């Protein structure tokens, strides 16, 4: 089968389009023919060596949608989707014509999603779902989501389904406008010291949960937090450090929740996909738009574009 593979890290030049044997599933596993595979920034960082636990040689790629060709009888022929830390790090991933993984690591693909749409959602939606779950977002929760990227928009959509009082915030005017077009009240981020005032105009008493998807607003989020509030984070500055106003945080009884999608294997992620996947078929979640579908053979170029900050959501099609 054709696949993207790297045998060294540190440079995207180590990623090559190769011909490798089609994997053979073992007991309790499935062989999935990949119909579409998402390309995430973490896949690029993997090739660049940002994850020291990756074993080599390795086929990267976490998110996928496809059809089961071998495995348990009840799964053969089923359209499935999946994601998880195993893929591309400890086991070969989805940027290939086939992938092998646990039979419990796939979920039935929502009927209203195309293969490409389903493949675009794994990492962003499981990350957002985990953030809402672990920070206790339920009906009525006053929520602020900071950022205009895929995880932020996923969190807003899922929180709306839960009945939370959502508020979006982004720095760039075009991001704010895009969020407003999607139907979310959105504020434009200005100076960090003004965040609490901005949030207070929408959420009296502060936000009960603040989800910072950018990594830069943790210090400013503390004054904007309600009593016993939670701040969820998925990123940090390059050096990994921020100045946390700890006194203000503990006086409010606040807490910080770290969200890391790489803590969950394919089976745990499949359980998440099953939980929120039905919302797409029920018309409660927006269908992805504006995907850049690209042949797997052009994967090297697409990796380079994502590394350079390209804004398109890339879907590799074997």
Automatic annotation (TrEMBL):
InterPro entries, per the entry: ADH-like_C, ADH-like_N, ER, GroES-like_sf, Lipid_raft_assoc_Zn_ADH, NAD(P)-bd_dom_sf
Residue intervals of the Enoyl reductase (ER) domain: 10-316
Taxonomy, superkingdom: Bacteria
A Pfam family recorded for this sequence: ADH_N
Protein name per the record: Zinc-binding alcohol dehydrogenase family protein
Organism: Pseudomonas piscis
């Amino acid at each position: 089968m054709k696949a993207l593979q790297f045998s060294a890290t540190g440079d995207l030049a180590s990623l090559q389009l190769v011909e490798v044997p089609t994997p053979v599933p073992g007991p309790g596993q499935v062989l999935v023919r990949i119909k579409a595979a998402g390309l995430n920034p973490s896949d690029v960082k993997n090739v660049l060596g940002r994850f020291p636990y990756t074993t080599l040689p390795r086929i990267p790629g976490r998110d996928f949608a496809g059809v089961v060709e071998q495995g348990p009888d009840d799964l053969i022929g089923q359209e499935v989707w999946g994601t998880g830390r195993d893929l591309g790090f400890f086991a070969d991933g989805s940027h290939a014509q086939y992938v092998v993984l646990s039979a419990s690591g796939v979920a039935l693909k929502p009927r209203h999603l195309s293969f490409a749409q389903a493949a675009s959602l794994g990492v962003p939606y499981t990350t957002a779902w985990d953030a809402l779950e672990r920070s206790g977002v339920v009906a009525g929760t006053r929520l602020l989501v900071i950022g205009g990227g895929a995880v932020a928009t996923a969190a807003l959509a899922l929180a709306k389904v839960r009945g939370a009082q959502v508020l979006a915030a982004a720095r760039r005017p075009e991001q704010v406008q895009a969020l407003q077009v999607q139907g979310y009240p959105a504020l434009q981020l200005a100076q960090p010291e003004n965040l609490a005032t901005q949030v207070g105009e929408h959420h009296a008493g502060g936000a009960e949960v603040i989800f910072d998807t950018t990594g830069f607003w943790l210090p400013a989020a503390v004054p904007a937090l309600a009593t016993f509030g939670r701040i969820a984070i998925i990123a940090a500055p390059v050096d990994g450090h921020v100045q946390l106003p700890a006194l203000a945080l503990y006086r409010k009884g606040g807490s910080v929740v770290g969200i890391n999608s790489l803590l969950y294997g394919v089976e745990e992620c499949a359980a998440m996909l099953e939980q929120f996947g039905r919302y797409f078929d029920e018309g409660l979640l927006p269908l992805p738009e504006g995907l850049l579908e690209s042949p797997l053979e052009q994967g090297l170029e697409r990796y380079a574009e994502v590394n350079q900050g390209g804004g398109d959501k890339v879907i590799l099609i074997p």
